Amino acid sequence: MFNKEFLKTLTVLYVEDDDNIRSSLSNIFTKIFAEVIICNDGDDGINQFKHYTQEQQSKIDLVVSDINMPNKNGIEMVQEIRELDQDIPVIFTTAHGESDYLMEAIKLKIAYYALKPINTSELLDNISNFCMAEHNKESIKEKSQQIIQYMDIINNITSIFKVDTKGVIVEVNNLLCEISQYTEDELIGMHIDNILHKDTILKTFNDTLALIDTNEVFKGKLKFSSKFGNTFYMSSSIITSKNEYSSEIEGYIYICIDQTDDEIEKQQTMQRVRKNMIQQRTKESDLIRTAKELENEIEKIKASSISSKDTKVIMAALAKEKQKVVILNTQISHYEEQIVKLTQQKQKIDGDEKVKKLEAMKKVQDHANEKEKFQSKIIELQALVSKLESKLKAKSVD
Questions:
Q1: 249 bridge partner residues
Q2: Is the whole-model pTM more than 0.70?
Q3: Which strand (E) or helix (H) includes residue 289?
Q4: Residue 277, C-beta contacts closer than 8 angstroms, at least 6 positions apart
């Protein structure tokens, strides 16, 4: 069944010298196609074709023509059309087999012979098929051009290289040369193991092959060493390259995005957070020691009478310690925010760093537990301070 929606997009050049046939079939065509250019002989047909395609810069999608016509027959007309357009589908309509024209029609790449009287449904089916095939060819050309453009873009933002089945580099792009500091000639023929960093999880090409064999495609972060010993990190996808005829694996294609700056920034952030955690632990220890000293002072106060002058000194000391508690609470809130940020960053770390993440999360949890203990101690201290204040006020009244 022909595709009505598709046919409604087509422009058809229809050439027929018989008035009755031309009138009958053109009435059907005008209802089916977007536009129908109706001509009464070969001269008119070629003139109209040139007018639409050259002067008006419009596209004709299909030619339907009789063979035997006055002035210029269908074969002669199509010969001239083929000089202008090698691919446009052409359908001949004829009352006989026209065997004399068969070989010439084959040379002109005629799509179909429709014998009169015309079977309209069959003709439209064939028109739909031939024009759809030509439309698909044009779409493939456009897609191919888009793919070329996409590849150019990808080539400029990703490092792409190919290795054979043994891990020897056989193709590289300019970006890999730039980031690795090797020339193309130096990289071609080099084994991939020579640029893999020794500290990376996948230390050898064989390690990578084991994962590819299991998952078909490898995705992860790899660590590399440049020609001059610099470390760089790349988020990598590795896919198999197969022979288009035998489907045998010919090698592996690495598609890599440089993430060196992100990795360095992440490591620096981790170092800053660790340093802040150590500083916070030191401050907590100092506060706990101060709290113990204050408790000792309170015990001394309980055990002996005090003067009003001593009371003022103690109250000032208590106020000072209260202020320290407020400041440290603020600091705790700050570091709680850092802990949240750290936790979020840890959740983004690749599977390659799971062990490090677990250790970091354990440290965060330990820190949180210490903070909770410290807050409990502060509450106890505040309660004790309040109790002491009450006793001091009572003594002042006495």
A1: 242
A2: no
A3: helix 260-303
A4: 335, 363, 367
pLDDT digits (tens, 9 = 90+) for 104-137: 777 888 888 888 888 888 989 888 888 888 888 8
Eight-state DSSP code of residue 242? E
Q: How far apart are CA 220 and CA 241, in angstroms?
A: 19
Name residue, tokens 């700056």: 261
Report the largest interatomic distance among the alpha carbons of the chain, rounded to a whole angstrom.
137
- CATH for 158-258, options being 3.30.450.20, 3.60.60.10, 1.10.357.140, 3.90.400.10: 3.30.450.20
78 by Cβ neighbours in 10 Å (0-12 / 13-18 / 19+) ranks as buried
- Candidates 322, 332, 320, 329; CA nearest to 279 is 332
Give the contacts of 186 (CB within 8 A, at least 6 positions apart): 227
Q: Which two tokens stand for residue 35?
A: 């536009």
pLDDT tens digits for range 274-319: 787 788 778 777 777 877 777 777 677 666 555 555 566 666 766 7
> Which secondary structure element, helix H or strand E, spans residue 287, and what is its range?
helix 260-303
- Per DSSP, the three-state class of 219 is strand
- Residues sharing a CB contact under 8 Å with residue 291, sequence separation 6 or more, in sequence order: 321, 377, 378, 381
Q: For residue 192, what are the contacts with CB-CB under 8 A and spacing of at least 6? A: 163, 167, 168, 169, 205, 208
Closest Cα to residue 329, out of 363, 271, 379? 379
Residue entry with tokens 């990289």: 187
Q: Residue 393 CA to chain centroid, in angstroms?
A: 70
CATH architecture assigned to 4-152: 3-Layer(aba) Sandwich (3.40)
Output DSSP code: residue 168: B
CB atoms within 10 A of CB 182: 20
- For 63-77, what is each residue's pLDDT tens digit? 999 998 988 999 999
Q: Distance between the two ends of the chain, CA-based, in angstroms? A: 111
Specify the DSSP class assigned to residue 193. G
CB 123 within 8 A of CB 91: yes
Delimit the domains of the chain by residue range. Answer: 4-152, 158-258, 263-397
